[in-house]
């Protein structure tokens, strides 16, 4: 099939893109890796598309005292290749390398993936475990959002029709930080069936454990995170299993089991269990 007819704006500035998005039925597009197939299947029928690939303001890199602000237009491949500096002890570069296939990584963007909000996508879980913040722009100004507040449900975020996800503020991890990430999928390149992610950075007093690909926003596991921050890795893993069991009680036993396995392997990957 082919997409239904739509108007197209090739935006060259963020102001131009935001002005075009003010039109009724307009939708932004960057890499198009998710929206493209939806258009062809006519699952999405926007009246207009606003192409963001030429917007230079979405490809900035700004280093703060304790964060790196990454423009939403940077591709997975550029993160994988180190064109975008990795301030997360190698976590973001490794995650980017495991996204789909190189052809997808060459076009897909970090901002597009987050805005699409597929629960099984990698960046949603990765940036949740890092406790990143999002910079969102509209004609009315700029607002920030914590990752935990951004995704409401599968494919649903707090982004309004006239807003654009402009950048991601990623915390700079210390040299001694430990990070782990593991996803279970049937074969390379597929979306995850379960994701486990863990970060512990003693120098920053930060520890977090996340179970992702749960058909909803990622599960930040508070009890496991607290135990890990206290240095009790075994207790943290046991607590993670308890919290996954409780949070996913309405799912089949196998679904709960693979998420426990993903988290356990993330602990092992981080060298903390």
UniProtKB/TrEMBL annotation:
Coiled-coil stretches: none
Domain of life from the UniProt record: Bacteria
Species, as recorded: Xanthobacter dioxanivorans
Residue ranges occupied by any FAD-binding PCMH-type domain in the UniProt entry: 1-175
SUPFAM superfamilies from the UniProt entry: FAD-binding/transporter-associated domain-like
Signal peptide as annotated in the record: none
Single GO MF annotation: FAD binding
Keyword tags: FAD, Flavoprotein, Oxidoreductase
Protein's name according to its UniProt entry: FAD binding domain-containing protein
UniProt-listed PANTHER family: XANTHINE DEHYDROGENASE SUBUNIT C-RELATED
């Amino acid at each position: 099939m082919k997409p239904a007819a739509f108007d197209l704006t090739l935006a060259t500035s963020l102001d131009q893109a935001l002005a075009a998005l003010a039109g009724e039925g307009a939708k932004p597009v960057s890499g198009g890796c998710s929206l493209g197939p939806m258009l062809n299947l006519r699952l999405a029928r926007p009246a207009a598309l606003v192409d963001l690939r030429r917007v230079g303001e979405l490809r900035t890199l700004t280093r703060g005292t304790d964060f790196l602000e990454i423009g939403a237009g940077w591709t997975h491949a550029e993160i994988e290749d180190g064109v975008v500096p990795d301030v997360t002890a190698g976590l973001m570069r490794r995650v980017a390398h495991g996204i789909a296939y190189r052809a997808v990584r060459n076009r897909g963007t970090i901002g597009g993936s987050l805005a699409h909000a597929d629960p099984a996508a990698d960046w949603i879980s990765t940036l949740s475990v890092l406790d990143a913040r999002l910079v969102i722009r509209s004609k009315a100004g700029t607002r920030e959002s914590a990752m935990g507040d951004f995704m409401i449900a599968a494919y649903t975020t707090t982004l309004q029709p006239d807003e654009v996800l402009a950048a991601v503020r990623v915390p700079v991890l210390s040299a001694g930080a430990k990070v782990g990430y593991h996803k279970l999928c049937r074969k390379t390149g597929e979306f995850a069936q379960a994701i486990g992610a863990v970060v512990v950075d003693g120098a920053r007093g930060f520890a977090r454990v996340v179970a992702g690909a749960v058909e909803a926003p990622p599960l930040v596991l508070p009890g496991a995170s607290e135990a890990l921050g206290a240095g009790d890795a075994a207790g943290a893993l046991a607590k993670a299993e308890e919290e996954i069991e409780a949070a996913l009680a309405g799912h089949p036993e196998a679904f709960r089991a693979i998420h426990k396995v993903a988290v356990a392997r993330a602990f092992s990957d981080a060298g903390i269990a």
